[in-house]
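Pilot study result, target chain (125 residues):
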Amino acid sequence: MITNKIRLSVKQLLENIGRVYSNVASDESLNYMVYRLNQSNRYPNRYDYTLLIDLYFDSIETIEDKCDEIIELLNYKQHNNEYVWLTFYLESRGIMTDVDKDIQVRSLRFQIIAYERSNQYEKRI
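Predicted structure:
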């Protein structure tokens, strides 16, 4: 299924920045990212997704640097592998508040335009 292929690609990309979890963190420590992937549209051979990344860090400087790294890695960039071609577009960067004032939380939202690689298509090129 293409969603799983995209989820795996996103996880591999974000692991270059730091600890990352899908949907929910598996422990209580700080300094990690959580991402969620939602499909928004589907066209023939094209899939649109929304990628939501929440970052939880204990330092304002660190969290802002991590946001910048993710934006540099993804925004207006194409990431291709043997299964999918992905293009990322930043939609928003926001500050979220946490009950614990010592926890810094940021949210990034990207649009992903994905194409599934197909042997049929590649043979025509």
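One observation from the pilot: The helical segments are 2-14, 60-74, 119-124. A full batch analysis is planned for the follow-on phase.
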